[in-house]
Amino acid sequence: MTRTTTTDAAETVATAQLAQGIERIATTPDWYAPYRISQAIKAGGLIHVSGQAGIDERGRTVSDDFLAQGRQAFANVERVLSAAGASLADVVKVGIFVTDMAAHLDDVIALREEFLAEPYPADTLLEVSALAQPDWQIEVEVTALAR
Fold first, then answer.
1. What is the pTM of this model?
2. I want to staple 93 with a disulfide (CB 3.0 to 4.6 A). Which of 4, 52, 70, 143 is the partner?
3. Which of 52, 26, 25, 147 shows the shortest CA–CA distance to 92?
4. Rounded CA gap, 61 and 72, in Å?
5. Do the beta carbons of residue 30 and residue 127 sit within 8 Å?
6. If you ran DSSP here, which 8-state letter would residue 88 be given?
7. Is residue 132 within 8 Å of residue 53, measured between CB atoms?
């Protein structure tokens, strides 16, 4: 009897996904790897980017300023899209999660204007009680066309 290890099973799943046209997208460093999260998945002509926060390449929150965190979150989205061969111009859907909607709605609109262009992508904006780290105020996820 052959014993299958967790590593063997993961490799089998990864091989099957690749055969189905599912590709994992990562940047270096990949600050999501320890959490078993892909930065993005390319599948079915789309790129699904996981939520990106206002953290730098060392995984540290860039500032306690909402706009600084938002700009970094969008820069991180751009970085992941670039690794997948796409850009913000390819984004068709945005999800923005904030911890204080009343205080930052105008800031979110400013960030959309700064990073996105006509035709603006579909968007969902949600207020959440908390994000993964207590100092995070915004997280941005997107779906983009794969080119």
1. 0.86
2. 143
3. 147
4. 9
5. no
6. G
7. yes
pLDDT in tens, the chain (147 residues): 555 555 555 554 455 555 568 999 999 888 888 889 999 999 999 999 999 999 998 889 999 999 999 999 999 999 999 999 999 999 999 999 999 999 999 999 999 999 999 999 999 999 999 999 999 999 999 999 998
One-letter identity of residue 109? I
Taking the CA atoms of the chain, what radius of gyration do you get in angstroms?
17
Alpha-carbon span 84 to 63, nearest angstrom: 27
Using DSSP, state whether 108 is helix, strand or coil. Answer: helix
Cα–Cα distance, 62 to 30 (Å, whole number): 17
Single-letter code of the amino acid located at 20: Q
Residue 18: half-sphere exposure toward Cβ, Cα within 13 Å: 8
